[in-house]
Amino acid sequence: MAEPIRTAAEPPLADRAYRAILQGLFDRTIPAGAELSQAELMAKLGLTAQPLRDALLKLEAEGLVTIHARSCIRFVKADLELSRATYQFRSLIERAGARTFAETGDAREIEALAAAHVDLIARIEAGGLGMEESAALGALENRFHGALLGALRNPLIETTARRLKNYVTLVRLDWLVTAPLALRTLREHLDVLHACARRDADGAEAALTAHFQQALQRLLGMA
Known about the structure:
This protein is mainly α. The protein contains nine helices and three strands; from the N terminus they run αβααββαααααα. It has a three-stranded antiparallel β-sheet with strand order 1-3-2. Helix 4 packs across helix 6.
């Protein structure tokens, strides 16, 4: 019997299983720190054996699961240690990006990012943090951090950053973003962008370091 033809838009089964497991972690179908058997995962997520095994091997390489042969699959727990490690690693990578963005970043991109931050700050100050503003905040965070990473023009760093984003999502699952917290984040971003606009690499790095320190404190409920 001929094998079914996969369209160009259809991802491999292992990739679909990988995304299904991540989504299960993000929507708490799979609780953080859970220990589940392969059969339980197959039933919970509607996956078949081989794609699940392939996806789990990829997730184990990324540090999100530990596979215990003939026993269980243990999922990473989003605890204090993981939060600190995640933000420390992000800071190490993006500090170099902030310096490079300040030194060589496109002035129009820097200006556009700063203007988008100023606009969103005004919207939140005027009307609070609704669903539209929350979505805009998430998109702007991705633009901001993506610009810093993109300035490095290093595909290995970009791949690592995409994986690191999964950790960020996990450690922030219980983080309630309020209007005051959103405004702090946006203003800290602006400090970085203003330094970049001045071509002040030292200032951009220092502002980004301070931003990550404050973000971790907010995550841990200390600020």
